[in-house]
Amino acid sequence: MTAVTQLATRPRFAGVAALVLGVFAALVALPPIGVRSPVGPAVLAVVALAVGTAALARGERRLGWYAVSLAVIGFLIGYLATRSSVGKLDAVVAWGALFAAMLRYATPLAFAALGGLFSERSGVVNIGLEGMMLMGAFFAVWGSAITGTWVLGLLIALGAGAAMGLVHAFFSITLRSDQIVGGTAVNFLALGITSYLFFKLYGQQGTPSKLSTIPDVHLAFLGHGFIGDFLGRLNILIWVAIALVFVTWVAVFKTPVGLRIRACGEHPRAADTVGIDVYAVRYASVTISGVLAAAGGAYLSIGFGNSFTENMTAGRGFIALAALIFGNWRPFGAAAACLLFGFSSALGVSLQTYSLSISTLFTALPYVLTLVAVAGVIGRSIPPAADGRPYVKQ
Amino acid sequence: MQEEPGAAPSGPGLVERYRVRQKAGGLVAPLLTLLLAFLISGVVVLATTGSFADTGKTYRAIFRGAGLNWFFEVGHHAVGLPFSHARVWFPWNTNDISSTAAANLEQTLILWTALVLTGLAVAFAFRCGLFNIGGNGQYLAGSIGAVLIATELPHLVGLPGALLAIVSVAGAALAGAALAGIAGLLKGTVGAHEVITTIMLNWIVVWVGSYLFDIGGPLQTKAAGAAGAVPSSADVPDAAKLKVFWGDPLLQGVHVGIFLAIAALVVYTLTLNRTTLGYEVRAVGFNAEAARYGGINVARNYFVAMAIAGGFAGLAGALDVLGWQYRVDITTIQGTNVGFLGVAVALLGRNRAVGVALAALLFAGLSTGTASRNLDPTIFAPGVGSSLAVIIQGLVVLFVGADLLVLIALGWLRRVRARPARQATAAQGAAP
């Protein structure tokens, strides 16, 4: 009885309960439960809808809307799953593999998004993440090819990213040019430089086939179950990315340095008044963002794959930027958004079992979600107050 | 422009003098930018080719690849008068079979048409204080809209003569306007930053377009001969194609759409400078708060400015599809950068019609001049040349955004020239 009274008295509890029910409306029809009748998802979805509406009526607006929309989506997924053949369903929804793929797709985004977090928290908008990633991707391959070891390749990539970050910093901080224009220029430049070197050095043959790549971490003791499939064979950089989310959170929100970075992004004049060197903090933050974005690019070229192709980041820097905004300029929020985008990519790829074109359409989902998020339909994204404003010392 | 504190000496100050130079045709900064961009990229070419002579040769080859040498090939030729069979004397060789320059120039002009329009799409939004980075999406919305109307409308209703083409072009412009309008609406109502929304809309169009026309997509053509080729839409019917007046339509000639681009330049200037709408748009762009205080509906202007900008870009997409592509394929949808080049065009053109026209010519020439099929492969390997063009574009955008660079350069020159006067200047500048 206590749970029921809590549902009635605490709207927040009701909202969370409705969310869980909405998720289950989809889950019951998927493996390993695999209910084959549409009644299962329908019942759960209706309950979720009712509880969600109740939460909404009692003033839990944000959570309530999440729950209501999730109930509808959950039912749709559940219903579609009951219409699908069991064989295909098992192939598409192999949870361990799906979650591992989610991490693989989310990692480059997470590196770039966390990089963007440093830059934007210090007050410099970074549209150039895409270009910085691309630099990382190319120079990781180049460095790995000439030094013969991925460690040096990665370091060279980070250096290239830092260089691109410095260019952006110089133009947006010292020269006070428009930061969005500067970021756009960085993207053009990086595309030009990497393609130029790629065609010049590797021509039509492509990058060397025998390349030292970043190894996976084998955790054999996890076995071959869900956990084993999920975490058993992940790239080193994936673990680094996961650790980096926590490190970023501590660094930006729990240390004096982080406080300084945020102060420069919220009110640079106040920061300057108390003796913080705004230019130095912003330079450092933008350079860090270049380094991290380059790490994401390096993961793409010598972690996830083993080659470089022209414009291989293909808009991932922009998705990372979207994840940052979606996550409200917070490390865990951004990481969650990256996981969401990663999951939709992973699901998109496995949906090819059903239809290639549906899978293509599915690729548009993260962008639609971000658009909805910035439109403020589900909670407003509020950037750091001085984000994008050049600071003039007095 | 940012005021430089501490730089307000007696007599004409640094900032004022810079303004005077800007007023002198507003040419100093863009030309300086170009010079810098070409010099730096010249270093890249120098490093690649290894000698100054080859660097010069490379730029000359790009110039020839763009077909701009056509203007210097004056001779005794004939050209057909429009609407008649008469042929009259003409100083240039318009026969693209006997003149490579003419063939190359046709390519440049085709691209110029699109770049003028995507450039205007960015410039118009700029004048309202908005950064429209969604030119690509709006361009594609126009392309897709034009193809849909041109291929589907004849099934519903038979349109006489050129009406199908006109309706397709208008519909495409509306499609681009609608897409950009979303960003303007969100900016006006909830304050969502237009850079983020237009980037997201770009990718939404790319993937929805890919879904429509890729393998297994609902609108992918199943026509004979299409098998094995890049997945694409059906071809637009002949009635919807724009008339090609220079060159062979099968080999991509200059189509009548170029006159629409020129008309758009005129419309752009007139709208901004001679209408209430333009006045309001500029007022909002100059200072949104002041405009609001003056009774201007800022939200409405954001929407209108973005919609008009999107209309320009959508027009570009329609003209490309109906003028020379005749279909939309997956490579174009996922690979076009015409919209992004529009940003460079608008920035270099300083958001003025004449500037946009000239900047579009520069970037169109740069792109066609370095394209693998136009640039002499003995000078640059395929791919390297077009990458060089992207580097130059990047440098131009980088330097164009940095007014202060010019300011610092001028200030440095001044300080070198007037070293003794510096002390007094600094003392006065520090005074309240």
Tell me the layout of helices and strands.
The complex is a heterodimer of chains A (394) and B (432).
Chain A: H1 2-9, H2 11-27, H3 39-57, H4 61-83, H5 86-92, H6 95-121, H7 129-147, H8 150-174, H9 179-202, E1 216-218, H10 226-231, E2 233-235, H11 236-253, H12 256-266, H13 268-273, H14 278-304, H15 316-326, H16 331-350, H17 356-362, H18 365-374
Antiparallel strand pairs in A: 1-2
Helix pairs in contact in A: 1-2, 2-3, 2-4, 3-4, 6-11, 6-14, 6-15, 6-16, 7-8, 7-9, 7-14, 7-15, 8-9, 8-14, 11-12, 15-16, 15-18, 16-17
Chain B: H1 14-23, H2 28-49, H3 52-65, E1 74-80, E2 87-92, H4 100-127, H5 135-156, H6 163-189, H7 194-213, E3 244-246, E4 254-255, H8 257-274, H9 276-286, H10 288-293, H11 298-325, H12 330-335, H13 338-348, H14 353-370, H15 384-400, H16 403-417, H17 422-430
Describe the model:
The complex is a heterodimer of chains A (394) and B (432). Chain A is an all-alpha fold and 394 residues long. Chain A folds into two domains: 2-87, no CATH class; 95-374, Orthogonal Bundle (ABC transporter involved in vitamin B12 uptake, BtuC), CATH 1.10.3470. Helix content of chain A is 72%, strand content 2%. Chain A contains 18 helices and two strands. Chain A has helices at residues 2-9, 11-27, 39-57, 61-83, 86-92, 95-121, 129-147, 150-174, 179-202, 226-231, 236-253, 256-266, 268-273, 278-304, 316-326, 331-350, 356-362, 365-374, and strands at 216-218, 233-235. Chain A has a two-stranded antiparallel sheet with strand order 1-2. In chain A, helix 3 (39-57) runs antiparallel to helix 4 (61-83) and helix 16 (331-350) runs antiparallel to helix 17 (356-362). Chain A starts with a helix and ends in a 20-residue tail after the last helix. The model of chain A has no long low-confidence stretch (mean pLDDT 87). Chain B has 432 residues and is mostly helical. Chain B folds into two domains: 1-59 and 379-432, no CATH class; 102-365, ABC transporter involved in vitamin B12 uptake, BtuC (Orthogonal Bundle), CATH 1.10.3470. Chain B is 65% helix and 4% strand. In chain B, the strands form two sheets. A two-stranded antiparallel sheet of chain B has the order 1-2. In chain B, strand 1 (74-80) and strand 2 form a beta hairpin. The two termini of chain B are 22 Å apart. Residues 1-12 of chain B have low confidence and may be disordered. The chains are: A mainly alpha (394), B mainly alpha (432). Chains A and B meet through helix 9, helix 15, helix 17 and helix 18 of A and helix 7, helix 13, helix 15 and helix 16 of B.
